[in-house]
Amino acid sequence: MKKIFTIIIIGIIAPILFMALIPAKNIFAPKDGTYIVIAWNDLGMHCANQDFSNMCILPPYNNQSAHVILQGTPTTMPEVMGPSSGVTVTYEIPGNTYSGSTTNTDKTNFWVYAQHIFGVTLQPNIGLTGLGLTGTMSDSNNYFHAQGIPFTPLTDANLTTPDPYQLTLIKALGAGSVVLATTQSVIPVSNEINCVSSGCHSSEMDILNSHASVSGFDIANKPILCANCHGDNALGMPNHAGIPPFSQAIHQAHGGETNDCYKCHPGPNTQCFRDIMHTGGMICQDSHGSVSNVGSSIAAGRNPWLQEPSCGATTCHGSNYAEEPGKLFRQSKGHGGLFCSTCHGSPHAILPTSNERDNVQNIALQGFSGTLRKCEVCHGYIPASPGPHGFNPLGIRPVSSTIPPQNEILQNYPNPCSYMTHIPYRISIQGQVSLKILDLHGNVITCLVNQQLKPGEYIAEWYVSRIPEGAYICMLSVDEILNLKKIFVVK
Ligand code: HEC
Ligand code: HEC
Ligand code: HEC
Ligand code: HEC
To answer: Can you say whether the dihedral through the CA atoms of 254, 250, 205, 48 is positive or negative?
Structure first.
């Protein structure tokens, strides 16, 4: 069987590299100011076999991402650090310093069989993308990313009881490796793949034997990589004509036997589904359907791993809380160009979760668990304009409670503006208020307010540092009655 030399997990191609890790080096000194770093995992749980002597379903392969943000002030916006910012980000997992080698197999024997399974020679503790258990994240435009950390659930101190929720230590470094900010984020991994421990199969050899009649299936050539024949997007392995993709084969074949996801997914001990949706009473099937459905939806055209349930579905949270078009939650960005996971955590671990480790990061950032909702964490103060999804803890700041005689937009200040301008406006009747900025062709540039307001005088803020120079129209509508005013942006 031909070996495939690329691994795609979550749709990102990462060539298998066998180079030394690039040392942290800062060419530019980052700007002065207060930095924060926020990290997350892509899936909320990763699975890996522990014993690879018979078969490989999934190798040790974990992912962490991070945003580094220069905190804003009342006169500057927060800045998301990108490639030329002079910031580097390192990761380590305290208490978990090795995974294994061809001779050290007390955590897993993956390194003994990696050559046979994937056709590659791996150095001790180095995974399929060339990363180890400590290293420097690569800089992917405006976030930092480590793809393929070969991480196991066994800590150095306890080689018998797995710990699926270990914490990474992530450091954002400036010039001279000065620490700008640190955080801790869960790097979830479990080896609870329960074919045997569930009581369903008597042994892994029993599974292989029952498959022996399939042409080309050679038990003598074990360990067997199931994805060699069954296409698998998790491993970047292509589909083969006449052989169902792995997810389809596994779910369709077992759907008649069980509808318990934890028979295979981790699991009775790990309890990977632990988030706010779970404590709110939802079960896996509410999002994914039954075991049979997971399989039959692939037969009907669903692309496994790459087409999954979305928050923005009309029957769920609706369009104000939607992913970017055509993208999954884990790939989407929202407020401030930040990944959804920056504020919400990982899929299956949407904050707050019932596992205290998931909540550690946001408690450190804002003082309490749950969605990152304290504007000050990134802005340094509370902006008066709508933030994520239009949410603002201040409401829209009312400046007077006397009832104005008419709806109107007052003179904005400063005008012209280059960074931000205040737009005072008056509402004379209770109603649905929208305050929008349009260009001179009538295209909506942004919506500053969209909510029910009581009569009064208010101030909105419009941030224009990313807006091209020119004239714009500010449009106030109260129950469809319009008012207009011109605003000038100069640079
Ligand atoms: C040599 C290629 C090959 C390999 C390797 C392979 N399979 Fe299969 N598998 C097949 C083929 C072919 C079928 C039959 C498809 C059909 O009948 O439609 C199949 C069917 C299945 C089915 C469905 C059986 C049923 O009763 O419907 C499951 C489940 C399955 N394989 C699991 C696995 C697992 C787990 C592994 C790894 C241990 C694996 N396969 C490795 C080729 C392979
Ligand atoms: C018989 C074992 C088994 C059971 C039971 C099972 N799964 Fe899976 N599931 C797997 C395996 C193995 C994979 C990994 C497949 C791969 O590597 O592509 C997987 C992958 C998945 C995926 C990702 C691939 C895709 O199709 O998008 C989803 C989603 C999923 N399972 C949902 C569920 C849900 C929901 C349940 C319970 C209703 C469930 N599974 C029950 C074995 C199982
Ligand atoms: C800067 C932080 C931030 C980012 C980034 C962010 N959100 Fe939110 N999100 C919030 C806050 C704060 C709330 C609670 C305020 C509210 O309910 O409007 C929220 C609420 C939600 C809710 C719950 C709504 C409800 O009915 O309770 C969903 C769903 C959601 N966000 C999805 C997303 C998606 C999808 C993305 C990415 C496209 C995203 N969020 C990006 C901060 C963020
Ligand atoms: C996780 C960090 C983070 C949090 C929390 C956050 N913001 Fe932001 N916000 C940003 C970033 C980054 C930008 C983009 C700055 C830029 O475009 O230069 C931004 C931009 C803005 C803007 C400018 C217009 C826009 O939407 O791009 C406003 C207004 C704003 N935020 C309000 C809020 C409010 C209100 C809250 C609290 C409810 C909040 N933000 C919470 C990071 C954050």
So the answer is: negative
